[in-house]
Amino acid sequence: MSRKPIIAGNWKMNKNLKEVFAFMANIDGKLPSEDKVEVAVAAPAMYLVPLVHHRGKNPLKVSAENVYFENSGAFTGEISPAMLAAEGIEYAIIGHSERREYFHETDEDINKKAKALIAAGVTPILCCGETLETFEAGKTAEWVSGQIEAGLAGIDGKDVANMVIAYEPIWAIGTGKTATAEIADETCGVVRSTVEKLYGKEVSEAVRIQYGGSVKPETVEELMSKENIDGALVGGASLEADSFLALLKMYM
Ligand SMILES: O=C(CO)COP(=O)(O)O
């Protein structure tokens, strides 16, 4: 299988600009080769352009944490896929559980965002994941495949093949409670079989699926060794350069 792993930090609503520059200085020249792994950081909107300008020759992709689904117009406070594309921002996270929960984003909004990003040439990182209640009720597979079907509705297989999907169980985000590598792999497998059911084997073998939820330098290697896990989406452990670099150690 030739899926290239993708390790992405998600800074959420953290850091000031000085800290962003310090992070960049501390990772300068230290990232692993692009041949082995794709490395990205998702940052608050106001840091995206500075990140693109300061990455220099570092093989670091830049991701938005959210985006709107229109390209321009009277949508106060939003940023568009076209704006991201014009500044060389490669990825945008959509449907993070924090957006779904605190900002009431629906599967339909997320699907529109995915389509708008693809049309603009920005790669979506589509998030899915269940609550503790759903997990404990044994309904994870049903829930996650429903989110994936709704999120991908009407999108062409060739575009899905290039997307990234992140499975992030809500009960493991910021709690220090990582899903075991087995559980993470099993549910990433559910995501892959949902894609296979919708688009066939070729697309499901191409799409990259990340695990997210309390991933740490100590747990990342085992997670990455699993068949259905092609990367990680990392919150807390991506904030400091040392810990971010430690997540990438296996690729150095
Ligand atoms: O939500 C996450 C990444 O998008 C996970 O956050 P933590 O790694 O802090 O649990």
From TrEMBL:
Cellular localisation: Cytoplasm
Positions of substrate binding: 10-12, 174, 214, 235-236
Catalytic residues in the record: 96 (electrophile), 168 (proton acceptor)
One GO term of the biological process aspect: glycerol catabolic process
EC number: 5.3.1.1
Isomerase in keyword set: yes
Listed GO CC annotations: cytosol
Main enzyme class: isomerase
Alphabetical keyword list: Cytoplasm, Gluconeogenesis, Glycolysis, Isomerase
Domain of life: Bacteria
Function: Involved in the gluconeogenesis. Catalyzes stereospecifically the conversion of dihydroxyacetone phosphate (DHAP) to D-glyceraldehyde-3-phosphate (G3P).
Protein name: Triosephosphate isomerase
Source organism per UniProt: Lactococcus allomyrinae
